Amino acid sequence: MSQPEIPKKQWAQVIQKTGGPVEYKEIDVQQPGPDEVLINIKFSGVCHTDLHAVNGDWPLPTKLPLVGGHEGAGVVVARGELVKDVEIGDYAGVKWINGSCLACDFCQQADEPLCPKALLSGYTVDGSFQQYCIAKAAHVARLTKDMDLAAAAPVLCAGITVYKGLKESGARPGQTVAIVGAGGGLGSLAQQYAKAMGLRVIAIDTGDEKKKMCLEQLDAAEFVDFAKSENVVKDVQAATEDGLGPHAVLLVAVNEKPFQQAAEYVRPRGTVVCIGLPAGAYLRAPVFETVIKMITIRGSYVGNRKDSAEALDFFRRGLIKAPFKVVGLSELQSVYDKMVKGEIAGRYVLDTSK
Ligand code: 8ID
Ligand code: ZN
Ligand code: ZN
């Protein structure tokens, strides 16, 4: 295949300092290193993590200046000399784990998100809010030519993360999972993965738009509006068929409160999976109920390369259809403005050509 033309300059969304603002401007296109590929990003999902990075919400500094973004779907346009198994012209995805050492204890056990040298797209290395993005070939997500790249983009973080979280929950087909933050990006995909895995879903979020999306588009069995409910714990338990509470809870909300409530409504022997990362938040659970209900509370962080491939395969098979809206890369700030207000039902995806 002939070499595609790669421009010297490209459009990107850049922050100079923590706190923002994001600036839409032209920057240089980088060359891939020996073990890297250069991907012409066509679409990039906007994850709440990108907003945490802008705001400096976490006790982990970002690189600066920073190009955010870690749900980038596009086409490989260049590769380093060591890369043998990714071809120019392949569809590929930039995910949160941009690279890892592949040699440490964690990498050897396929726990590469725990690698102390992991490179994080749009956080410790530049990410997918640009037209040309670099990623380590070993970690790049393999996309197939039959995939719609706009719809595939949210799978690259939201999809992989919730799929992994559902596996970590240990919930089995026929059981019930409560998804807290169901109307957001991770939550909307979580409902589709849960359904595909044979789970019954209680969606928890707020507002009529999100309620409609959860019940009518994503096939949740029940919806609990946390803002309208007088007693969320009671209402979630009442939404299970036997009133004993959900077998698993997936916490993908960006708010501390539900992290304090989940242990109260989860079923005895149930598992609470923490995924959302609200700034400065702490977990709290009553010791008495945790003990006598034999509850498990655990964290879950993105997924390894195999989880990623599996999550993408669910998508490729047509099992994951979550609503998303496409706007231009130039409109990232307006997406953040909506995200802060909790006004996004599903995911926004940026078209890098606009
Ligand atoms: O690997 C990981 N653990 C990982 C991967 C990717 C993302 C973690 N995250 C984190 C993000 O950094 C963020 O903190 O997951 C969180 C959710 O990301 P998102 O889905 O991209 O955010 P969103 O689209 O803004 O959705 C959040 C939803 O939570 C609801 C909001 O209404 C919104 O729909 N929500 C809130 I805020 N408070 C709630 C509450 N008390 C609530 N839903 C139910 N109960
Ligand atoms: Zn993300
Ligand atoms: Zn490692």
TrEMBL record:
Keywords: Metal-binding, NAD, Oxidoreductase, Zinc. Its EC number is 1.1.1.1. It is an enzyme of class 1 (oxidoreductase). Residues 19-350 form the Enoyl reductase (ER) domain. The keyword Oxidoreductase applies. It holds the Pfam family ADH_zinc_N. CDD domains: CAD3 (cd08297). Its cofactor is Zn(2+). Belongs to the zinc-containing alcohol dehydrogenase family. This is alcohol dehydrogenase. It comes from Coniosporium apollinis. The gene is ADH1.
